[in-house]
């Protein structure tokens, strides 16, 4: 009965999904806040809606620059979705868009010198991933070029197995993006959610096996948000991965319902995103692999499945800028398990710093 309940809950959370019409290009209002997102997509473009993407697997990467307007009444960490023709005074809206060559894409990031790559998870369509990164960027005040690595998820509850294959399909493309950025001396931070976390770790593992230490040196941080990775598989991946300049960070919630369903579908004993940091095996995992595991179970969930709590970290980050006052989120109960396997009392400190890079 529990697995049926989880299926119903996930289905209800996605029953009114945003379609490609939310990408309609509209005019920006004077003085309105905007964020510019660079996109590297391995989806097949839509033939009916300009600059939209399907769930098909493309034969090459396509690059875009998309400017998203943030409505004046935006309330972090929400996405105010447009209804009908997007109205930028009331909802997120695309107000600028152009196709880029790979050289132009790299030039955009080189001008900033740093980039933050968001790798979305299972059951995402293109517009959901684009607007989620726009929300994170707007709420966190992050610097550098925000980049969406968009892999061909089916955006369907029943597409779990197909999504696993699509994530594997996109591995070489993510390695390609990291390589061209690293060769251009662009320092990158990766924030990877859910199944996208497996894709991100695989890309780092692949670069390690290729001996591309020059590229790995430019990956300054890897954050895995609610990673849908079997714990034993993660150990195996990390065993073949060269250490990055900073420990890999895992944002975990032991009550993540989506990962509970994933464990049942995959027959896994435990996923990295649902670890309990108080358990001895979790402490040992952190110690053996120099991980920092952050329990974010106390942060609010946007859709009721507790799988999207990472989005709230961006919302609290600006509050952490004023270091002269007590930490305003110290009461959240979030705890950090450091690389030595010890729980330290530093609520959200690491998460806030990460999202700012």
Written account of the structure:
- By secondary structure, the chain is an alpha/beta fold.
- It has twelve helices and eleven strands.
- Strands 3-2-1-5-4-6-7-8-9-10-11 form an eleven-stranded mixed β-sheet, with helices on both faces.
- The radius of gyration is 19 Å and the shape is globular.
List low-confidence stretches: 1-13, 320-334, 345-357
Helix and strand content put the structural class at alpha/beta
Report how far the terminal alpha carbons are from each other: 43 Å
Give the number of DSSP strands. Answer: 11
What general form does the structure show? globular
Sheet with most strands: strand arrangement:
3-2-1-5-4-6-7-8-9-10-11
Instruction: Please report the number of helical segments.
Output: 12
Along the chain, the helix and strand elements come as HEEEHEHEHHEHHEHEHHEHEEH
Strand content: 15-25%
Task: Give the C-alpha Rg.
Answer: 19 Å
Mean pLDDT: 84
The largest β sheet comes out as: 11 strands, mixed
What percent of residues adopt helix (DSSP H or I)? 25-40%
Summed up:
By secondary structure, this protein is α/β, with parallel strands linked by helices.
